[in-house]
Specification:
Elements lengths: L1 H9 L6 H12 L5 H14 L3 H14 L27 H11 L4 E5 L9 H7 L8 H11 L1 E5 H4 L4 H10 L7
Parallel strand pairs: 1-2
Helix pairs in contact: 1-3, 2-4, 3-9
């Protein structure tokens, strides 16, 4: 499936949601090589990612993610950054998370170390002395008790380990941002 997705995107054809889902499943399961992952990310970026492609990738990522246990009554927002803004700005989403949480809105701040940007959320929090390597249960407890939690991507998306190498090597914004 990954080769078909690469060929289509190189030819500037859009993937269906289902095709994108299956391509991401190949990545998540470790079935795609680093070269294939890099080729898909670059060809998608060059043709422009489409909503149905992003939805298919997100569906696969959610399917393969570890859930954070939260009470149904807790209505939290996620202030995830996009990374790779190309302007080398400071990490705005992490600062905004503290402002929003300070205003009383529960914040589930999803993020990672820098991959395609100057500074990832995890880098900021670690520099502040915040312990980020916690499990999903502890994340849920932080959100419930404190009103803010950092949802560290490697802890919740272990299958993404297959894409981290190619993402770092190409060093540009991709559909993962």
């Amino acid at each position: 499936m990954i080769r078909t997705a690469i060929q289509k995107t190189v030819d500037k054809q859009h993937l269906s949601r289902e095709e994108a889902f299956h391509a991401m499943e190949a990545i998540m399961k470790g079935e795609a090589t680093d070269a294939q992952i890099g080729a898909l990310l670059i060809s998608l970026r060059m043709k422009g990612e489409q909503p149905q492609e992003i939805a298919g990738f997100a569906e696969s990522m959610r399917k393969n993610a570890r859930p954070v246990p939260l009470p149904l009554s807790l209505d939290a927002v996620d202030l995830v950054g996009t990374g790779g803004d190309g302007k080398h700005t400071f990490n705005i989403s992490t600062v905004a998370s503290f402002v929003v949480a300070g205003a009383g809105v529960p914040v589930a701040k999803h993020g990672n170390r820098s991959v395609s940007s100057k500074c990832g959320s995890a880098d900021v929090l670690k520099a502040l002395g915040i312990h980020i390597d916690i499990d999903a249960n502890q994340m849920g407890q932080c959100l419930e008790k404190v009103g803010i939690a950092f949802l560290f991507a490697p802890a919740l998306h272990p299958a993404m380990k297959h894409a981290i190498g190619p993402r770092r090597e190409i060093g540009v914004r991709s559909v993962f941002n």
